[in-house]
Each structure stands twice: as C-alpha cells, then as structure tokens.
Amino acid sequence: MKKIGILTNWNVPNYGAYLQAYAMQKVISGLCPKDSVVQIAYLNKKHYNMYYGFWDFRHRLFVINPKTYIGSLKKMMLRRKAIAFQKYYRQIPNAKLQEGEVRQFDTVVLGSDIIWAYTMEHNSGDEKLFGIGVGADRVISYAPSFGSVDVQAEVPSYVAEGLKKMAAVSVREENSADIVEKITGKRPQVVLDPTFLWDFENDENVSEPSASKAYILVYGSFFSDNLINGVVEYAKRNGLTIICLDSLGDKFKWCDRTVSMKNMTPFEWLGYFKRAAAVMTSTYHGLVFSLIFKKPIIFHPTKFILDKAEDLIDCLHLREVLIEDRTFAEKIQYHWDYELIYERLSSVKDESLQYLKGALADD
Q1: What is the pLDDT of residues 127-166, one digit of tens each?
Q2: Which one, of 255, 308, 314, lies nearest residue 282 by Cα?
Q3: What is the pLDDT of residues 313-353, one digit of tens each?
Q4: What is the pTM of this model?
Q5: Exposed, middle or buried by CB within 10 Å (0-12, 13-18, 19+), for 275?
Q6: Angle of the 338-361 helix axis to the 303-315 helix axis, nearest 10
Q7: How far apart are the first and last CA of the chain?
Q8: DSSP per-residue string spanning 311-346
Q9: How many CA atoms are closer than 13 Å to the CA of 165, on its beta-carbon side?
C-alpha cells in the first residue's frame, strides 16, 4: 500500500476550495483503491494568519491608526468563521505535514486551485507549494494555477527548482501552461478542475436546501447595477425568491434571504446550487458548480476570476453569454444546451483522468 498526500488550499473557510479538495480525494481514492489517500493539513504561517490571526498590523502608525482596529475586528470575525468551518475538515482523511521528515509519502499531488500564485502575499516564498520539502519520493501536480501571474514575470528560484523536479506536471489553464513551458521547456497538459471529475449529481452527501419555493441563487460579492435590477425584475415577474449564499459576509438588500456560512455545511451549500432555478455568480467555483448542475448562469467575474475561468469558458464555447456584455434577460434566456456542453466536456474529462491515472501509476 502506497501513501498518497494531496497538498492544496484545503483547510480554509471556503466552500469551493473545500469541495475541490473533496473531489480530488474521491477521484484519487477511486483510481488507487488499495492505497492510503490523505489531504495534507498544511498552511504556511502567513496563510494561516489570514484566517486565524487576531490583529491587522499592515497600516502605517498602526497603534493610532483606526484602520488597524477596523481591520482587526474583521479578522476576528473571519477567525470565528474559520474555526467554525474546521469541523468539516474531519470529513476528509488528512494528516499533518511532519516537518523535517525525509519520507512521509510515496507521492504528493500538488493542486488544485491557485496554489502557484507566488505573487500573492500568503503564497510568497512557500517552497512546499512547489513540492520542495514535502517528504515524498515523487511529486506530481493536478490542475494548480498561477492565477494572474504574467508569463514574463521574473520567477523565484524555488519555483523553477520545484517544477523541474516534478515527475509529472499538469495545470488548470493555458497561462499557467505557458509559464511552466517557459521554465522547464516542456508543455504541461491542461486538465479540468477536479470538481468536474467527481459525480456530485449523485453524491449522497449533497443535502436538500431549506427553501420552500423556487429561487434564483446569488453567490459572490460583485454585481453590476444592470444585473441586480434585472434579477429583481425577473424574480418578481416569475414568482421566484432570490437567495444569497454568504461568500465574504455578503448581505444584499435586493435579495429576499441570505444564508450565512455559519448556518451552512459544504454539502448544504451544494444543495442550493443543485435545486436553483438559475445562478448569478461572480466566483470561479460558483460558475463550476452551476455548470455541474446544469443551470442557466448569469456570470459577472472580476479580472482575477476571469483569469481563472476564461479557458474553461472558451473550451465550452460560452464566451458570448458568460463574458461578453449582455443584459440579465439575454443571459438567462440563452439556450443552455447542456447536452452539447457536456459533449465538449467529456473528451477533456477523459484526458484529465488518463493524465492523473498515468501520473499516479508511474514509478
């Protein structure tokens, strides 16, 4: 029996991050049924303090600067959410990374999510996210991303060292593939987010939402006035309620109801997507789970989110409705031909599974 570790943004209070880790766990366990597969319970100190720290000392003259105390209050509220979210981590087999242990795992899988975005403060300087010092004989990657890192950016030495030592490399989008190719001279395979590899539609853990009537689901923090006016008018005309799922403490007056993170398990969160009449979102995994559950989607991404989602959108030929400037009515009335969308997904899914199976099997 081999021991396989998965290193990703897992133990953070984020539904999308948790569920991509859950999917990765399920898929690898299915491919390697005789092996031990665990999430690695690891966050570097800066990343840990983002969620579990008490004070915000980033501001000039922090002792007398009111922003310090406002920021610290927000950190303490986030810390409470993070601690409350910890109980769900036990639902996924996990193990702490034993510092200094030469061989703890036979194979470590890096990914998914934007763990390679080394320009982000909480990732900066973290060698383990590139497989250095993780105590494994072999390191492979599955669908990590460099996020918004420019292909022309100067690359830290540990990034190049880690990539060149990996036994197999795959990434989530073309920009990340460009960066890897520039560093290693080899083009990595672009694969699907692991949430597409797991059958959430038939996952018995997915819970029924607490909603008595049909609803439009809202998930995200950034929406244009045109889309807000459009969803309110459409819901009123069609007898629908508007339910907001808390993403970053969101409370929208134009929504009929808000479901707080503290009152929602990851699988209840999924249930709201599964039963929605339509989804309006500005997040990457909001888009992904809307596609998984075959919903009409009103997508309003920031540039940061679009950098993660654009290749997937183009692969599915959905740029016109998801990216281009359209009204709410045009987006929701779009012909969502999910039979065709899933035909386009199927070959990429097969290639992604074949990559992962081969990367895990190679000695």
Answers
A1: 999 999 999 989 999 999 999 999 999 999 999 999 999 9
A2: 308
A3: 999 999 999 999 899 999 999 999 999 999 999 999 999 99
A4: 0.90
A5: middle
A6: 100
A7: 14
A8: HHHHHTT-HHHHTS---HHHHHTS---HHHHHHHHH
A9: 21
